[in-house]
Every structure is written in C-alpha cells, then in structure tokens.
Amino acid sequence: MLSSEKRSLVRFLVIYLASTLLLFSLASWIFYSSTKHHLLDKQRDTIMYEAERIKSKLRGLHQSNDAVLYYPSHSKIDSAIYDLDKKYIFGTFKPSVKLDTILSKDTLYYLSKVEPYYLGAAYLLTARKIDYTPIYALQKQILFFLLLAGIVFSALGYFLGRLFVAPMRDAIARMNLFIQDTTHELNTPISTILTNIEMIETFGKHVENMDELKRIEIASMTLSRIYDDLTYLNLNHHYHRKIENLNMGDLLKERMVYFTSMLEVKKIDTVLDIQDDIILNIDKNDALRLIDNLLSNAIKYNKRYGTLNVTLDKSMLCIADTGIGMSKNDLSEVKQRFKRANKSEGGFGIGLHIVSQVCENYDFDLQIESTINEGTEVKIVW
What we know:
The chain is of the alpha+beta class. The chain contains 8 helices and 11 strands. It starts with a helix and ends with a strand.
C-alpha cells in the first residue's frame, strides 16, 4: 500500500472510530447513569421498607406491658430515633451531622416521621452503606461491551476504509500501468538517438550544426533520465541492488560533465567543492538517481545566468541553486509522487519522490530548504 493510500486510510479510520467511540461512549454513559440510579433506588427502597418495619415494632413496644423494651434492629441497616426537636434518643448508630444536612457519598439515608408519636420518638432515620458490587459489575459489563464494540467496529472500519481507498488504488494501478507501457515505448527511440549522436561526434560530421546537435543531445539526455526514473518508479520494490564501496567524488564529477550541455544552454555558473575519496556503501544506480535528479532539478528550476553550488564531503551531499524556489506549502508536499511545486516546467513530479525513496532505503537524512525567488538547497546527510 502506498503512503498516500495509508494516509487516506488512517484519516478515514481516525474520523470513523472517533465518531463511533464518541457515540457509543455517550450512549454507554446514559445507560450507566440510568441503571446506576435504578440500582441505588432499589437499595433505597430496602431502607424505606425497614423504616416501616421499625415503626411497626415501635408501635408494638408502645402497647407492650413488658418491663424490658428491645429496640428493633437489622444486621445491614442502621436506624436511630429522634424527638420532636430532632435530638438523638437512641439507635444502632449516631450520625455526626444534623438531620437537616445529612448527606454522604457512601451511605443512603431515609428520614421519616413517626406518626402517631410513640415512646418520645418523632423521627426515624434509617441508613445503609451503598453496596457497590452490582455497580462494579455494571461497569465491567459496559467496559467489556465497549471493548467488544471497538474491536468489531475497528474491523468494520478497516474493511470500509479499504473500500474507500479502492478507487485511488485503481487509479494509481492504471497510472503505473501507463508508466510501464510508456517506459517500454521510450526505450527504443532514446537508444537510437543517443547512438546516432555518438556516431556523429565520432566521425566529426557535426561541426556545422553544433547548436542543433547540442539541443538534440539535451533532449536525448532528458528522455533518458525520464526513462530511468519511470523504470525505477515501476520496479523499485523488485530492484536488485548491488551494494559496493563507491567513490562519490569521482561519480559526481562524471555527472557534472554529463550535464554540461544543459548548464551551458542556461548560462549557469557552477561552484564546486567536491572532496576526493568520499567512499559510500551504496548501489551505483541508486547513487546515480540521487545525483542526476538533484542536478536536473537544480538546473531546470534555476534562473538563466544563475549559480549552481555543489558540495560533497564525508558527511553530506549538498546541491543548491539560485532559482525560483518553493513555498512552505509546496515544500511540505514536494516529496510526494507526481507532486510538482512549479508547473511552468515539464516533468512528471517524480524526481524528489525517487530521491526520498532512495534516502529511505539507506537511512539517509533528506533536508530541503527553499525560498521563493531565491533558490533551493537540498542536503543528503549520511
């Protein structure tokens, strides 16, 4: 899956799962609050029933002739009786707060009047510690439900996301097929043109048409580079690399000679700072793609009578031009396939994408800085 497809799929999944999670969380919270309130009401009902039982017992004690009175009690529910002034008389517990302000997060209270008035008791307070066992069980059930729903909807979202990016994948597949066919068709005429140019130069038949020949040579070089780039783009994942110790200084000087014709046409000055014996462990074709694409872009987007600075040392390759530059928005997307920051020049928009792919394969750090109408500087740090 391409990086653009992955980004689209991830964005879809984030939006889909976030909205689904929000909806289910809201529904679960409403259900939890309602069910918890119901469970607490059931526990509150038990202390209300116990209050009525105690009142009945108090009525019986009032009518009893026994010398010893036994206060009715319950193993799980506390109770206490108060007089008309809400002063504590007796009970199985004694709250530390007044009846009018009784409130607790862990205990349920129920205050009721004793009517008619028995044994000096005017109010009855019953209380019970909240039993959190069913509430904890409810929380576990909701969390399990959310986890199960998350797994199911993640799988469903991934399936829908694949369907969502399917048209993009089909379009890219068709484009790659087009590139494959194009590269096949380009190969023969490019080879023919370059071979004939070499023959003309070898036999000295080009003296009178030097300018025309140079233009043909530049066009042929451009076609050849496009062919190489399209081939690499199509076969990158199946490309067999031959890693070797490569002298980057010699290779860079050789490629500067290769681009001489293009530099001369635009009257571009070159400032070279190339250290000798810079050895890099890399496939030669990958190194050529790095250098050729960077030099080609620096020449293509440079100004006429501009300057091309090429620096090579043991830590990096730096190629800078004094051309049209790029905006910050274009700079953030310029590594994407088929992205062109400037459409006034030709090209497929694959040069920097190929450079970034090569850098990724070798863990090189690709740094690009650019300013509109001032130029662009590209560094590859190894």
